[in-house]
Amino acid sequence: MTQTLYTESELKSVVATLAAAIATDSSGRKLLLLGLLKGCQPFLADLCRELSRYQLSLAVEYLQVSSYVGTASSGQVTINHGLPDSLWRGCDVIVVDDIFDTGLTLKSVVAHLREKGAEKVKTCVLLRKEGSSRVVMEPDYCGAVIPDAFIVGYGLDYNEQYRELPYIKILAEDEQN
Ligand code: 5GP
Ligand code: MG
Q1: How far is the CA of 172 from the centre of ligand 1 (A)?
Q2: Domain 7-149 belongs to what architecture?
Q3: In what order do the strands lie in the sheet with 58-69?
Q4: Which residues, judged by CB distance below 6 Å to any ligand atom, belong to the binding site of ligand 1?
Q5: Residues 7-38: pLDDT tens digits?
Q6: Ligand nearest to the Cα of 128, by number
Q7: What is the pTM of this model?
């Protein structure tokens, strides 16, 4: 049975609230949104649209990061990008991801960026799972906290399926094969 967790209109209002918080905290420096592919895509696009309501200097780039195999985190985070370190110089960076689960992905990406010379790095996730964190770190911006279940839709996949759904649902056991 399909269990919708967030409808399209609920997601829209969660994203609008996140954009307002980011805009309020803006230092006036250029803001570089660094999306983690592929899951960030619909969220980041909607976040940019909402941020366009504010007078911000905004740039968007992407990192390819992966850690999930099927419905479980492998614990091994692979970061793959050809971005020059000059990209984040003088910018406030916000790493944007779909969901914070164990936290290993965001922790690794933030450490990687700091190592590559980024000064101010914040993190923003649409969702965070309750009780699943394995790191001492909290996302700076978080749209909502959800139960520890495997979800799909709005960019989140199960073996590359379901990313196109405009809503988020819990993946039922009979849909996992
Ligand atoms: P973490 O490193 O925090 O454990 O996991 C973050 C990444 O794992 C997310 O970017 C996302 O790609 C994937 N992930 C974590 N939980 C889920 C989930 O419930 N569903 C899907 N589809 N991906 C998830
Ligand atoms: Mg991801």
Answers
A1: 16
A2: 3-Layer(aba) Sandwich (3.40)
A3: 72-80, 58-69, 30-37, 91-100, 120-129, 141-146
A4: 36, 39, 67-68, 73, 97-105, 150-152, 156-158
A5: 999 999 999 999 999 999 998 899 999 999 99
A6: 1
A7: 0.94
